[in-house]
Amino acid sequence: MPRVALVTCAELPDLDTDDQLVVEPLRSLGVDVETPVWDDPAVDWAAFDLAVLRNPWDYARRREQFLAWAHAVPRLLNPVKVVEWNTDKVYLRELAAAGLPVVPTTWLTAGDAADLPHEGEYVVKPSVSAGSADTGRYDLADDAQRALAVAQVEKLVARGSTVMLQPYLSAVDTAGETAMLHIGGAFSHAIRKGALLDGPDLRDGQPLWSEQIEPREPTATETELARRTLDAIPGSDALLYARVDTIPGPDGAPVILEVELTEPSLFLATSPGAPERLARAIVARI
């Protein structure tokens, strides 16, 4: 009987409730399923026929440790080279350079002045994060919020982070984000994500896990953008799963917000048959 590890973190030893939905379909296909914690030194990763990243959601503040662990896992999906590329959102620069529409981003690192625009709503976030931790929305025409934004930039840069400054796209308040899920190299389903950020980041590094999620039928333009995006990613033919998040830009055309290839929520519960599709795709990789 093949052994598959659905990799998680200590906070979710039994997986997130959505990812639990794939366990029984895997077992029905004759797979021995376990949910080991990625940084547990007692785990023998070589004993698994496959390790699938699902909920290692505490990696962001320990990215180098996480990548060292991932390199040491013999059979990991998604592949470690993809994980290395995808766990820092500077990959958006490569996608933009490839001609793909990406949310306009100003990148700030050590030595850069926090010279922010004088008006408009902007999002400040680190390039390495999970669950919107250390991410806030700021009205830069408001003196108090502007001061908070500058302080956030300076705090993140001081700890060694690359900071992303992006205009807040108001379409998220109405249309929301469209997240398109691919499983086993094929489109599986899509969901709508409602607006999450309501103001400056005052959470002291805590993530935002509460999301408004509902099924969505993506437009042909969104679907085509997701496909073009995945085609532009090195090693995309080896992906077990992928999620492309888009949002309407100022002209209404979709732009890429992010591409989740490491440990994305797959929203299996929103699409009949999605857990079974994922289980079959996993078994096909053993």
UniProtKB/TrEMBL annotation:
InterPro entries to which the protein is assigned, alphabetical: DcsG_Biosynth_Enzyme (IPR053191)
Taxonomic superkingdom: Bacteria
Cross-referenced PANTHER family: GLUTATHIONE SYNTHETASE, PTHR39217
Protein name: ATP-grasp domain-containing protein
